[in-house]
Amino acid sequence: MKLLIVDDEEHLVESMTESLPWSEVGVTNLSAAYSGKQALRVMEQEPADLVITDVRMPGMSGIELIGAIKSRWPRTVCMLLTGHAEFEYAQEGLKHKVSHYLLKPVKDEELLANVREAIEGLLAEQEQMRALVQSQAMVHRNRPVLRANLLNNLIQGRPWHDRKLAEELALYDIPVRVGDETALILVRIEDREQRYGISDMPVMGFAVANIVEELLGDGYGSWSCEDLYGHLLFVVRHSPEQEHAEPLERLADEARRIVSRLLRLTVSIVLSPAGVFPDSLGGTVPALRRYDPRADRLR
């Protein structure tokens, strides 16, 4: 960790920097400044993780220095050296989130203990940040699978509290919200077993899903999965900003034609009436699975 010590009394700074075992408490880089302005120049060249500053210095006070540091380097931990007579004045540092107040003359053991505590806090914060970044990266990598799993859980009737479901929808960036008016589209590939091998079936399902999602485009917010029966299911929300979106019936006809031409597959597509998400899933999905393949819409 990088530590910057700031005090206009040079002999105190030299004593602190040269006589204390900083490496034992986690300091790997130590620098000094003798005024607030010089400290800011040091920070600009190589920002410190931790700053210890005297409260009273000519030109720029320690309080002013901490305010300037926090405005530009908000994660830097600041500690304030102050005398008993200055303690009330030093309370102004609270608004700048000063982490520690050290009363002069500070004992070496107390100074080192406070620095150790501050560094341990910084390391814990960095570890939490790393874990958060890794978690977000994992969600991003696995987002398609996680989105599909969530929809399958809803289809299978797993109960969700609206608040928890809303959090999951937002986490996976799903363009549907609790209470939205949605329609359901079920797509069944009728002849993929005859035209393709078993190993090709997931690829064909992916290709068909891409075609449908491309056709839905910006006019509809869609969310899809492959259910336990091998059907492709789409939850579709009309986007209010797209007033002239193609009707779903017309998009279904176009999807059938494109799939037939590009993939040499026959698909049956059925649409549900509009319903309120997620309440409409429970009864509508089983009915969709029982549809007449000669019909375009659930009866």
TrEMBL record:
The modification 4-aspartylphosphate is found at D54. SUPFAM superfamilies: CheY-like. Residues 2-119 form the Response regulatory domain. Keywords: DNA-binding, Phosphoprotein, Transcription, Transcription regulation, Two-component regulatory system. GO terms for cellular component: cytosol; protein-DNA complex. Pfam families: Response_reg (PF00072). GO terms for biological process: regulation of DNA-templated transcription. One of its GO terms (molecular function) is transcription cis-regulatory region binding. This is Response regulator. It comes from Cohnella ginsengisoli.
